[in-house]
Design a protein that fits this description.
With 147 residues, the protein is an alpha/beta fold. It has two domains: 62 residues, 2-Layer Sandwich (Phosphorylase Kinase, domain 1), CATH 3.30.200; 62 residues, Vaccinia Virus protein VP39 (Rossmann fold). The chain has four helices and eight strands; from the N terminus they run βββββαβαβαβα. Strand 2 and strand 3 form a beta hairpin. The structure holds S-adenosylmethionine.
Length: 147
């Protein structure tokens, strides 16, 4: 039976603990019952979590390697440059939750199609199929994160 604990430093990030297994990172699933990239789903205390695979997501790997800061929490507005099909962006979407937004910029048509399907299910993810080098992106204010 797995147990889930809050990450000691980063809000919206959790540890899944299960006997005989290494601790795994996870985020609370914004869309219960729905996987994004085949990740395991874990239920604890009536809440569903998505295991966050560090081999598929550099942000998860960086957290496991004890990165000092992850400036994303519930309600954050994140501009995600190079979202691909949304693997990491979906975990960011879990972290910022319903109050936040993840603006996902991606220009490759094949992965952008998958991203669009994902964004239909995750209403806090906004797809922007465009080249991130276009000047209009840098002409706006606010904080941007390249993951
Ligand atoms: C390594 S993948 C990103 C994976 C993603 N960060 C994750 O962890 O799920 C890099 C993505 O950036 C996109 N990309 C690269 N340059 C771009 C640009 N100028 N504008 C938009 N997307 C770009 C690529 O098409 C590719 O899908």
């Amino acid at each position: 039976m797995p147990s889930v604990e809050k990450h000691e430093k980063f809000s919206g990030v959790y540890w899944v603990k299960e006997e005989g297994m290494e601790e795994r990172l996870a985020t609370r699933n914004l869309t219960p019952g729905v996987r994004v990239y085949g990740e395991p789903l874990v239920k604890a205390g009536g809440v569903e979590y998505r295991v966050w695979n560090p081999y598929r997501s550099k942000l998860a790997a960086a957290i496991l390697k004890k990165i000092k800061e992850v400036p994303i929490s519930k309600g954050s507005k994140v501009l995600y440059l190079g979202a691909a099909s949304g693997t990491t962006a979906s975990h960011v979407s879990d972290i910022v939750w319903k109050e936040g937004r993840v603006y996902c910029v991606e220009f490759a048509p094949r992965v952008a199609r998958e991203l669009l399907t994902l964004c239909e299910k995750r209403r806090n993810m906004i797809p922007i199929v465009a080249d991130a080098r276009m000047p209009w992106l840098s002409s706006r204010g606010g904080r941007r994160y390249l993951l």
